[in-house]
Design the sequence.
């Protein structure tokens, strides 16, 4: 079985309060994009309960047993007695970017195992498993635009499509760890109800939709601010850092030529109508 876990962007990201459990409550819109990893899962006949994991592409800087893909397998294997599997991940979505690539890989592993072994788990059951792996993992089971709140695990459908726009994604050659990004955050109330985003013209987004992490992250990684400024100068309708960084996305009315604009950066484009 071959699956293609996709990345996401955050449209708006308000950190509204610190929770008693040490986490933070947020409000954001998760929006899936077509930047994808490649995940291959094969059953190993004659044995149970073992996941053999290999990877190519962007190097994965953690032990296989700590990788979210293997953790997702063992979560289901423990409760459903799964056969052993060989899993290969070709990593395309960059780390430390705010794109949710690791969470997507975990969620797609759950979905893939459910199909491969005919477990009969519903979307809600898969989302419950995904929540045990990470706050935004459950989104990738649903994988449709949502307003997310709580720690990011609570979701409501939101009426939003970016299909008419061209998207550019740029990540500098520096990542940002989520704990580091949160250390500079001062929680505050959201300045806009993101559930109403579909009613707001995009040219007005920058007036009321912000990513709270930009204030703490950009001083530490000034390249992010430079990328934002350059994308704005190219005519973007809206530019924002996604998640806790360091990737920046921009939305344009029409495709733009950026091949030589960001040397040394990871650059990806999703053109209008594709």
Sequence:
């Amino acid at each position: 079985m071959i699956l293609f876990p996709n990345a996401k962007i955050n449209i708006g990201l308000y950190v509204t309060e610190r929770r008693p459990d040490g986490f933070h409550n947020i409000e954001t819109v998760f929006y899936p994009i077509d930047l994808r990893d490649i995940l291959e899962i094969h059953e190993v006949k004659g044995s149970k309960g073992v996941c053999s994991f290999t990877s190519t592409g962007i190097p994965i800087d953690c032990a296989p047993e700590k990788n979210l893909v293997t953790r997702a397998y063992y979560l289901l294997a423990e409760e459903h007695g799964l056969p052993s599997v060989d899993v290969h991940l070709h990593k395309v979505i960059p780390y430390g970017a705010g794109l949710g690539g690791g969470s997507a890989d975990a969620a797609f592993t759950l979905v893939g195992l459910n199909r491969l072994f005919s477990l009969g788990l519903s979307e809600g059951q898969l989302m419950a498993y995904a929540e045990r792996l990470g706050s935004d993992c459950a989104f990738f089971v649903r994988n449709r635009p949502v307003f997310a709140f709580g720690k990011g695990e609570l979701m409501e459908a939101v009426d939003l499509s970016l299909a008419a726009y061209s998207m550019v994604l740029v990540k500098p050659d520096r990542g940002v760890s989520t704990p580091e990004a949160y250390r500079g955050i001062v929680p505050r109330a959201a300045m806009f109800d993101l559930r109403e985003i579909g009613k707001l013209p995009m040219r007005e987004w920058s007036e009321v939709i912000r990513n709270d992490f930009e204030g703490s992250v950009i001083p530490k990684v000034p390249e992010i601010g430079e990328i934002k400024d350059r994308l704005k100068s190219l005519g973007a309708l809206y530019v924002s850092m996604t998640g806790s960084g360091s990737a920046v996305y921009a939305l344009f009315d029409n495709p733009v030529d950026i091949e030589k604009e960001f040397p040394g950066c990871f650059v990806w484009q999703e053109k209008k109508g594709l």
Residues 101-116 form the longest helix (16 residues). The two ends are 25 Å apart (CA to CA). Helices lie at 68-80, 101-116, 123-131, 137-142, 178-183, 205-208, 214-217, 222-233.
